[in-house]
Amino acid sequence: MSLWVDKHRPRDLMKLDFHKDQAIRLKNLVQQSDFPHLLVYGPSGAGKKTRIMCLLRELYGSGVERLRQETMTFTTPSNKKIEIMTVSSNYHIEVNPTDVGIHDRVVIMDLVKNVAQTHQIDSSGQREFKVVILNEVDDLTKDAQHALRRTMEKYVATCRLILIANSISRVIPAIRSRCLTIRIPAPTETEIASVLHLVCKKESINIPSDLAMRIARSADRNLRRALLMCEACKVQQYPLTADQKVPEPDWQIFIRDTASTILSEQSPKKLGEVRQKLYELIIHGVPPDMIFAGLLKELVKNCDMAMKCQVASHAARFEHRMRLGNKPIFHLEAFVAKFMAVYKKFMEESLGDAF
Amino acid sequence: MQAFLKTGKISATDKPSSSGIKTSTKKKPPAPWVEKYRPKTIDDIVDQGEVVQVLRECLSGGDLPHLLFYGPPGTGKTSAILAAARQLFGDITRDRVLELNASDERGIQVVRDKVKAFAQLTVSATRLDGRPCPPYKLVILDEADSMTTAAQAALRRTMERETRTTRFCLICNYVSRIIPPITSRCSKFRFKPLARENVIKRLREICEAEGVDVGEGDVLHQAVDTCEGDLRRALTALQCCQRLLGKITADGLIEVTGLVPENTVNEYLSVKNYSELEKFVDKFLMDAYSASQLLEQLSATVVTAGHLTNKQKCVISEKAAVCSHRLLDGGAEFMQLTDLGCTIITANNDP
Ligand SMILES: Nc1ncnc2c1ncn2[C@@H]1O[C@H](COP(=O)(O)OP(=O)(O)OP(=O)(O)O)[C@@H](O)[C@H]1O
Ligand SMILES: [Mg+2]
Questions:
Q1: Cα(A82)–Cα(A72) distance, rounded to whole angstroms?
Q2: Coiled-coil annotation: which residues (chain A) (predicted)?
Q3: Is B5 exposed, middle or buried (0-12, 13-18, 19+ CB in 10 A)?
């Protein structure tokens, strides 16, 4: 049995539950013949993919939903074989080029060229072009982004790209100026709550408004997370009640726990303990920048204004270094050590003032 | 994937190849405006008088030097050379022009083999049907700033040796990424961001051709303001706006270009305490605005802001520069915005 997130995913542009104006505009766009390249961006769980699949369905009909998964092989200039998973239909193909790390350029180029050189089956009403969906373009190497530039212009007759990103800060301007950029803000808490109500209705379940609102609030405006939480609630206790506990993601609890360890005592010994916890988080696949953000949020809670600023600036500095280096643990730990030093001094001084 | 590719067959005539520019005149499917209105001849190029002048001389029989075009995106570099090539070579463009860009393999090996092989082909000064044509071939290296130094060094030798039969045209955004031995062999042309009036004129022509109503032209001014001399960006914005909203409006343009609304910038600039800041940053990122865009607009606002002292302006601008650099390196937006926000709070409390 599939999860609610998949089971109740809207499949039609007009059935999308929020940003309805935008859905209407996208529908207009499809009706025009000069469909441009798209760059779709928004935070995770904002429904980018759902919206794009609806758009494709609008473009090509239900044929795009017959998906198959395949592994493709590419050869790098240095004759290394690389493999990548693709999901495709007769009309589109989707990849995560970042899966292959620094070889992303080869994958993108070969793929786009392949697609652009095959003709669309020309029964009437079909589009002249196929679509290539690239995920996580903000994490592409600069090399790959540069390679996309002329490619996007050259093959525009037979192939359109849909680029998906969390933010356009890291997409080079030359690419941005070649695409229609579509911003997808995260749904608001009210919008999330109303989606929860809808889904529960489809499942013939009764959900108290209070509970829906609480789930929405603790989901960080991430619809996917809210739905998963809601389903977990149902597994935990049914019928749902207004005051039942909303399960929080484990890693959030764990980060909070780590933060309180740091605040409890500032010593090399504690630092060692914290390191174990950080390792644990990393091993479980929590992205290091989320660990950083989580720690910062928790740690500044007990600080005064001046110190909050100081800590935030250290965090920003260490996080930046982490991006340049390749072992996140070093930089996380450096930040924790720095925080301990600053915090300890602060505590001692404020104790000193008290006497 | 195989099945996916097999749904159609590769047609021999339409296969895009890196060794030629499509000259087919058959009905093209509707293309985005930027492609549709790409200058067909060098006379269509807006601004850039100097380059156009030189190219025009070549067209009327003069010799073509090696060229190096550089300048910001969307100022007509690629368009200029493609138009010139088409005018120079007409229907034999395919045999005489080799276009390589960042998407093609351009390591040392390719420069040594492919470019050299192409350069060594001899050419005559007449076409098959006897009409005259320029006695040389043209190699276009678009986006040359993404070539490695080693590949550029290899290129230098080839350039030197094949000058008799081959001209090179290098195109890049940053001329500093091209090695000096190459720049010194080329005539350099800087493509300036296009002048305001000219952009507006061009946009108006295109809108007319498309039958789009732009009213008195206020929205065109808006389009120019948001695109900083990048005509491609302005055109894409206009088209997107037209396609999405059915009409072109100032608000629509702001939305499609990903600009941050002005009051959001001001809100950030006037945060007073940390919890306000935290809330602002969360909301900002949830609304999917871009931090680097915010910083860009912020620095413009700060410099002209009347309510800030010089000291405040300095402190904020300096930090904004640091944060913007970190963002370029891939730093997390949340962190950098919080850091800069703290500086703003401190500055606001200490005029
Ligand atoms: N000077 C110009 N005159 C007329 N049209 C222009 C000019 N500059 C840009 N354009 C328009 O913008 C589009 C893109 O221009 P072009 O591809 O030449 O930019 P570029 O300078 O090569 O940019 P990049 O550095 O991103 O490759 C063209 O199709 C054309 O419609
Ligand atoms: Mg170009």
A1: 8
A2: none
A3: middle
- Sheet (strand A81-88) strand order: A68-75, A81-88, A92-95, A130-134, A159-165, A38-41, A180-183
Using a 6 Å cutoff on CB, does residue B86 contact ligand 1?
A: no
Length of chain B: 351
Identify the band that residue A53 occupies on the pLDDT scale cut at 50, 70 and 90: very high
Size of interface A-B (CB pairs under 8 A): 220
- Provide the β-strand partners of residue B166: B137
Ligand 1: atom nearest CA of B69 is 21
Work out which ligand 1 atom sits closest to the CA atom of B77.
21
Helix, strand, coil abundance in chain A, percent, nearest 5 = 60, 10, 30
CB atoms within 10 A of CB A187: 25
Span B53-86, pLDDT tens digits: 888 888 887 788 899 999 988 889 999 999 999 8
Task: From the CA of B191, give the closest atom in ligand 1.
Answer: 21
Could you tell me if the CB of B236 is within 6 A of ligand 1?
no
Kindly list the distances between the CA atom of residue A353 and the CA atoms of A6, A344, A347, A348, A349, in Å, as whole numbers in the listed order.
58, 14, 10, 9, 6
Asked if residue B78 has its Cβ within 6 Å of ligand 1, the reply is: yes
Distance CA B269, CA B272 (A): 9
The whole-number average pLDDT for the span A289-314 is: 91
How many CB atoms are located within 10 Å of the residue B245 CB? 17
Task: Determine the residue type at A226.
Answer: A
For the CA of A146, the nearest ligand: 1
Helices A288-299, A250-264: axis angle to 10 degrees equals 50
Angle at B285 between CA B290 and CA B337, to 5 degrees: 75
Question: What is the least distance, in Å, from the CA of A204 to any CA of chain B?
Answer: 31
Q: With beta carbons under 8 A apart, name residues in chain B contacting A170.
A: 292, 327-328, 330
For A82-117, write each residue's pLDDT tens digit: 899 999 988 899 999 988 888 888 888 888 888 887
Length of chain A counted residue by residue: 355
- Shortest distance, CA B130 to any CA of chain A (angstroms): 31
Q: Could you tell me the CA-to-CA distances from A351 to A293, A304, A343, A347, A348 in Å, in that order?
A: 29, 14, 12, 6, 5
Residue B16 neighbours by CB distance under 10 Å:
16
Ligand 1 within 6 A of B46 CB?
yes
CA neighbor of A218 nearest in space, from A199, A233, A197 = A233
Distance from the alpha carbon of residue B90 to the mean position of ligand 2, in angstroms:
21
The whole model's pTM is what? 0.84
CA atoms of B193 and B72, how far apart (whole Å)? 7
* Conformational region of residue A61, where left means phi above 0, alpha means psi within -120 to 50, and beta covers everything else: left
pLDDT of residue A42: 92
